[in-house]
Amino acid sequence: MWCEAVRWREHGELGARRFETAARASRTASLALSNRKEFTTPHNGAINSLQRRYLLSGASDGSAAIFDVQNATEYEAGFIAKHRSILLVDKQHENGHKFVVSMAVWYPVDTGLFVTASFDQYVKVWDTNSTQVVMDFKMPGKVYSAAMSPIATTHMLIATGSADVQVHLCDIASGAFTHTLSGHRDGIMSLEWSTSSEWILMSGGCDGAIRFWDIRRAGCFLVLDQSRSQLGRRPPFLEGTSDKIWFVSHISDPLNSLQPSSSSKIYSAQQRTGKSKKQSHKLHKSHIPGHGHIQQRLHPGLSSSQNCATAHYGAVTGLRTTTDGMYLLSSGSDSRLRLWDIDSGCNTLVNFEAMRLQTSKPLQLAVTEDPSLVFIPCMASIKAYNLWSGMTFQTFRGHYEPVNCCYCSAQEQELYTGSNDMQILVWSPSTPAGATFITTVQYFILQFHPKYHFDKDS
């Protein structure tokens, strides 16, 4: 079977992207609490943030630590890899935070710098090699969130959300504040940069609003409204790129992945005629006789009613974009998870099954690279939902207290979770690599070569 699969790859019948995607999906689907790897944390408080290959964590005791995910510090019983922190900055450090570290993020370009945000109202930039503070920024209130654009090439800005109603932008290059973004009516709990534009920032506030900002101009240009919706998802790529369309769609519905959905057909028809709902709405509004220009508006392009729209009935506690930059996930203190189409700004009406979320602190969500699954902390467990159907795919239980953060490693296909029990747990694929390969090959043969069949023991 392996030889046959390789032959199909050589002949071009089995695309590399498809094979890689299904292999990753198969490993992600088999995640379970690892019995081969564990982290020995130096934290004496809840784990609030987890980031990247060198795992960067921030905790409620005011400390931040770095772990090497790939290289174990020691081995227990010969095969259990123990990972101890290779760097620790705590309250005893001369420049350490005095209160809760709410967020710790890496500088996107390399691991030479990292940023921590704390309830002591400071955002600090650290040199990893010297473990010294390079610069710090004093905020007007408790800092709930900090974020840097993963694709920025022309700026080095840190966006910060705090108990203050404004988003503050801090420039690492100059060591000063550049400007503030005003619009929220309460504190800002979550921030997320766009993965398709280095200028677009999204913020979620305690007022229930999610605002989109172009940092080059004043005011937000979009406020998400939960009542403004579209049914289904749009095709992610233009016609003719079937591999790319399949890349996003096959996980949610493998049996119907080659058949366009009704919403896709409608969207394609609108593209051909050049009359989408969004365009027709704009044209209709701009050609109403007797209506002049808007004399006063709170934000460019927004009416007062649009400016007051809400995405959740309560604080927005978490934001996460998909890797393709097309969709945004948001969680709220109303214990709801919503999926938004970033291009149209519409609620996609994906009905995620019942969940219970924390309401008093920000949550760090994780999405697989496909994207097919979203991992969300649900009190002492972590739930994996199918991104497109909203069905619960799997529930992970292992923590003893509420979970605050999740990080999904695309390279290792592992899930890392941090909790109030001061532990970082590793969830690894339980299926052996060989079995994954065979399962993947069978999947492709059944989907793309229906003339081949397998026995149960094959």
TrEMBL record:
Entries under InterPro entries matching the protein: Rad28/ERCC8/Ckn1/ATCSA-1, WD40/YVTN_repeat-like_dom_sf, WD40_PAC1, WD40_repeat_CS, WD40_repeat_dom_sf, WD40_rpt
Record's compositionally biased regions (Basic residues): 274-286
Ranges for the WD repeats: 94-136, 181-216, 309-350, 396-428
Keywords in alphabetical order: DNA damage, DNA repair, Repeat, WD repeat
Annotated signal sequence range: none
Claim: Transferase is one of the keywords in the record: no
Pfam entry (one): WD40
Ranges of Polar residues composition bias in the record: 257-273
Region named Disordered: 257-286
GO biological process, one term: proteasome-mediated ubiquitin-dependent protein catabolic process
Stretches of the chain forming a coiled coil according to its record: none
GO annotations of cellular component type: Cul4A-RING E3 ubiquitin ligase complex; nucleotide-excision repair complex
SUPFAM superfamilies hit by this protein: WD40 repeat-like (SSF50978)
Name of the protein in question: Anaphase-promoting complex subunit 4 WD40 domain-containing protein
